[in-house]
Amino acid sequence: MKIDSRRRAWLRAGALLPLAPVSALAAAQLPVALAPPPGLTPASLAADQRYWSKVAALYDITDAVVPLENGYWGSMARPVLEAYQRDIAKVNHGNAWYGRKDFPAEAEVARSRAAAALGVELDEIVLTRGATEALQALISGYNRLSKGDVVLYADIDYDAMISAMRWLKQRRGVEVVSINLPEPATHAGVIECYAKALDSHPKLKLILLTHVNHRNGMVLPVAEISRMARERGVDVIVDTAHGFGQLDMRIPDLQADFVGINLHKWIGAPVGVGALYIKRGRVRDIDPYMGERDGDDVRTRVHTGTVNFAAYLALPLAFDLHEQIGVANKQARLHRLRNLWVEAARELDGIEVLASADPRLTSAIASFRLKGRLTLADNMALSKRLVVDHGVFTIHRDGLASGACVRVTPSVFTSEMQIERLVAALRTIGSRA
């Protein structure tokens, strides 16, 4: 095999070949016309159908149904998908030669890009395969618990995280307490619920907080609850799988030292990318992953194994596209789509809407059910009826203290006409309930 002089020198030195900056490569592939028109506020842009049609044109989405179940994961825009496909080919072509020599440095470029977008320092995050992996590492590894201490979760929290919190009884010998958040929710009512829990459990040491829950989409006032907990010496672990990317915020805004993050939901990165955040100075409060060396390197707190190389490589481009649209603009658009169907559904007989009227507690996600139909079976049948009879795809959710529901989640590619299809379906269903 012939080796050129550049590679021969590289082999002797054991160094990496020079790399083109990933973010610069990504930016060159973005459609410049996607930048929002100047001078428009997010609220005004949210109603600009022409602009959001341009955004939607970047996505190749099925027309077999009206897709209103976008909380599962977020489809990649075409530029990200094409970059991902090129990266898959590059990785496959380079094989272990690429994986051993070039990928570590390129992965660090992606991690650095993620840190900047999250508003944190590079040494405070490690990339994971998703928020679940990150949060399980944080919950299972949190080592400031003693036998008899109390940990707390709520009915809105994600199922896998609830399981991890319950497991702490076995792992750490703690008492596990759950609370049910009030419905309908108010800002003051939610904070009061956590304040009462803190008052009722003087040995409380750890709280799980879900920034935007996957059941009814309520936005938890995390910063306020975190500050309240800190004053009493209680730590919080925050699940922002549905928060970061659709809300105009960055990680320090949460006022929390431990956070699990998804990047394949609202950022539009390839499936299989998330991040774990530990505030500088708190790494040793999370145990190293099995057998990893202890110390202050956040990367020792999770061990993903062989990752999807191409998914990490496409991450900077996904961030560039996300930031070109603008997170404040995305949030305003998603809230507009949510409000279009929620406000209409509130007026329908037979329909119960599970969504706060307080804009501080609202996200893209909201839920509903038929009045009096609280079981999981009822809501599985309702979501099936929506897709079979009306061509509208949603998903049933369970776990709320008040009962099961059907979740609706639009995306930036969702049109207002599609929301009207949902409303028309609800009018028919509600009238027959």
**Radius of gyration, CA atoms, in whole angstroms:** 23 Å
Number of helices: 15
Question: How would you write the strand order of the largest sheet?
Answer: 2-8-7-6-5-3-4
Q: How much helicity do the residues have?
A: 40-55%
Can you characterise this structure?
The protein is 42% helix and 13% strand. By secondary structure, the protein is of the alpha/beta class. It starts with a helix and ends with a helix. A seven-stranded mixed beta sheet has the order 2-8-7-6-5-3-4, with helices on both faces. A four-stranded antiparallel beta sheet has the order 9-10-13-12. It has a two-stranded parallel ribbon with strand order 1-11. Residues 1-28 have low confidence and may be disordered. It has helices spanning 5-13, 22-28, 42-46, 49-56, 78-101, 103-118, 131-141, 159-172, 187-200, 222-230, 309-313, 315-325, 327-346, 376-390, 416-431; strands at residues 66-67, 125-128, 150-154, 175-179, 204-210, 235-240, 258-262, 274-278, 351-354, 366-370, 392-393, 395-397, 405-408. Strand 3, helix 8 (159-172) and strand 4 form a beta-alpha-beta unit.
Topology:
Layout: H1 5-13, H2 22-28, H3 42-46, H4 49-56, E1 66-67, H5 78-101, H6 103-118, E2 125-128, H7 131-141, E3 150-154, H8 159-172, E4 175-179, H9 187-200, E5 204-210, H10 222-230, E6 235-240, E7 258-262, E8 274-278, H11 309-313, H12 315-325, H13 327-346, E9 351-354, E10 366-370, H14 376-390, E11 392-393, E12 395-397, E13 405-408, H15 416-431
Parallel strand pairs: 1-11, 3-4, 3-5, 5-6, 6-7
Antiparallel strand pairs: 2-8, 7-8, 9-10, 10-13, 12-13
Helix pairs in contact: 2-12, 7-8, 9-10, 13-15
